[in-house]
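Dear all,

This email documents one entry for the complex benchmark we are building for the journal club exercise. For each entry we list the sequence lines for every component of the assembly. Then comes the predicted three-dimensional structure of the complex as a token string, followed by one or two observations. Please use this as the template for your own entries, and keep the labels exactly as they appear.
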Amino acid sequence: MLDYILAALVLIGAVFTLVGSIGLLKLPDFFMRLHGPTKATTLGVGAILVASALYFSLATEQISTHEILVTLFLFITAPVSAHLMAKAALHLKIKQVERTQNKR
Amino acid sequence: MLMTVLPFAFALVSLALLLSFVRLVKGPDVPDRILALDTLYINAIALLILLGLYLGSSLYFEAALLIAVMGFVGTVALSKYLLRGDIME
């Protein structure tokens, strides 16, 4: 049973990582593209890390905390780096498509 | 079940890595390239953790944590450079 849960978590994580990269490649302008990889950071890597935390906690019979550290770090730093990249893009006044919300 | 699913997960994450690399090469502006690098290192972390699961070794988490720290520092430094024309003033 647990094996199936682990497999599902790994697959969900991999699919969301792929979806984030497809969004990065396909969306029309930078401010929309910024939206894609957030799925890869939170859901994608998050699900894979939860799967590996469960797996190693059961395999070694002691609670595995490395993964929690990586998750925590990514969850704290992802908004900061997204904010800085958006600020840099606004500063450089890069092109926006007509559909971008709050267009300047 | 986990061992049969893992190769598919490897394929999906590797494809994601490839797609973000395409954006890194193609990206019309500099922030696009920084964003592609950011995505690239996040995908690399996912791939390393999958490898750790596959080989049953917890040694790969140290590498993943190191990539996370260094990638964040790199993204911040590059964005600061674009904003200010200088990293530390």
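Observations: Residues 96 and 104 of chain A are 9 Å apart (CA to CA). The two ends of chain A are 53 Å apart (CA to CA).
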